[in-house]
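Run log // design_07
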């Protein structure tokens, strides 16, 4: 995306200040507290070694949409325990299957009803591209962008602990077999070091980053302002092409790659991606062999995005059409079900697996905090009406109390730290 005109940024800045001021007076901007069910291990058994031969599928079809899901009976406790049971694949190629039990399900707060909107935006990228390339290393390697990682199978992911990455299940498993390359799976973290030296003492370096901190409700605008300043500097140096080319080469993104120790995928996905319910479980967790020294982003649970005053989601990933670059975007949610978020955030293959986040206040505090509330699955053809007719959306899998309990259990290895979201 090109430079953002100042006449566009100024109204956005004013709007952000007004929204932030209103937020101080409203509990609607506060993270809700959830009583989370407990997911506990029952039994683990060894399985045969996978073939690791499945091709990557960038686009899924046949997803059971909102109207379709309304007609389905509520899953029984046995069915939920089956969906949340999981496979673990280790770096030596072996795998196990773990069955689980779910306790305290009735204590979890019920979700609100489905919310929809007739507003229609863009599919993948149509017309004006609203994505922002974070090309400045001194910015892309700072929180929250630094939590975004690249998966060696061609997807994105997000750090949810010092050594765990949340991504999409279809980036690991086709529904029938693990993808080619998963046996040697790696995760790439953007390097901070550049020719100027670590920390970047030039323009846009560490000193300027400190001045950008703070400011309730302004960060999205500041993110775009920084990108705009970068683009304006490029425009001023058009007459010095050779120098610009050398500068671009010095800023070319590079990754520090880390091997994956083990991968966990829910059984709800490993039953054939053609099954409509599979999209609800399109998430996986990767445990890294070595924890990178990068801040992670916590998980959060929110019953409705559209009922929030802003109603927007944000995510950053490594889109295929901008190789190696981190791409940030935000948009409104068009429709939402209990398990999926339907929207038209501009995205391309490669961004699948990105962590979808929002920013709310911590309970009883004025401090704002970003949390991951979903995983971007990608462009999908969805059965919205239940009669087989397909409509295309960009879809994200939302973190429900049950999924929070499972992912938290995978990360901590115990359910004792996963009772409150």
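design_07 sequence
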């Amino acid at each position: 995306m090109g430079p953002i005109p100042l006449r566009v940024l100024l109204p956005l800045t004013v709007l952000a200040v007004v929204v932030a001021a209103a937020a101080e007076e409203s509990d609607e901007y506060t993270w809700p507290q959830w009583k989370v069910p407990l997911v506990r291990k029952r039994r683990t058994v060894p399985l045969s070694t996978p073939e690791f031969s499945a091709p990557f599928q960038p686009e899924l079809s046949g997803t059971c949409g909102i109207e379709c899901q309304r007609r389905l009976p509520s899953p029984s406790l046995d069915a939920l325990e089956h969906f949340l049971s999981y496979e673990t694949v280790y770096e030596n190629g072996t795998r196990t299957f773990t069955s689980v039990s779910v306790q305290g399900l009735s204590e979890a707060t019920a979700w609100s009803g489905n919310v929809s909107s007739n507003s229609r935006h863009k599919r993948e990228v149509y017309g004006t591209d609203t994505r922002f390339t974070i090309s400045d290393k001194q910015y892309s390697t700072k929180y929250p962008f630094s939590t975004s990682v690249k998966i060696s199978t061609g997807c994105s992911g997000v750090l949810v602990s010092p050594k765990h990455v949340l991504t999409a299940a279809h980036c690991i498993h086709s529904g029938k077999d693990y993808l080619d390359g998963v046996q040697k799976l790696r995760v790439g973290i953007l390097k901070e070091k550049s020719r100027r030296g670590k920390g970047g003492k030039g323009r846009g370096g560490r000193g300027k980053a400190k001045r950008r901190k703070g400011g309730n409700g302004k960060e999205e605008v500041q993110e775009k302002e920084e990108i705009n300043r970068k683009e304006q500097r490029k425009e001023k140096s058009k007459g010095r092409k050779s120098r610009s080319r050398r500068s671009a080469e010095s800023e070319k993104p590079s990754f520090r790659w880390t091997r994956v120790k083990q991968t966990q995928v829910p059984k709800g996905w490993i039953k054939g991606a053609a099954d409509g319910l599979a999209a609800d479980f399109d998430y996986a967790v990767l445990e890294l062999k070595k924890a990178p020294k990068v801040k992670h982003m916590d998980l959060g649970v929110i019953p409705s995005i559209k009922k929030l005053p802003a109603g927007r989601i944000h995510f950053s990933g490594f889109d295929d059409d901008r190789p190696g670059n981190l791409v940030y975007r935000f948009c409104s949610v068009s429709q939402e079900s209990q398990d999926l978020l339907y929207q038209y955030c501009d995205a391309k293959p490669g961004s699948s697996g990105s962590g979808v986040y929002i920013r709310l206040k911590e309970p009883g505090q004025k401090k704002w905090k970003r949390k991951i509330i979903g995983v971007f699955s990608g462009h999908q053809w969805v059965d919205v009406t239940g009669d087989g007719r397909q409509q295309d959306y960009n879809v994200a899998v939302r973190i429900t109390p049950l999924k929070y309990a499972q992912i938290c259990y995978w990360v901590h290895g115990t359910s004792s730290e996963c009772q409150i979201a």
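Residues 2-25, 107-123, 194-218, 237-250 have pLDDT under 50 and may be disordered.
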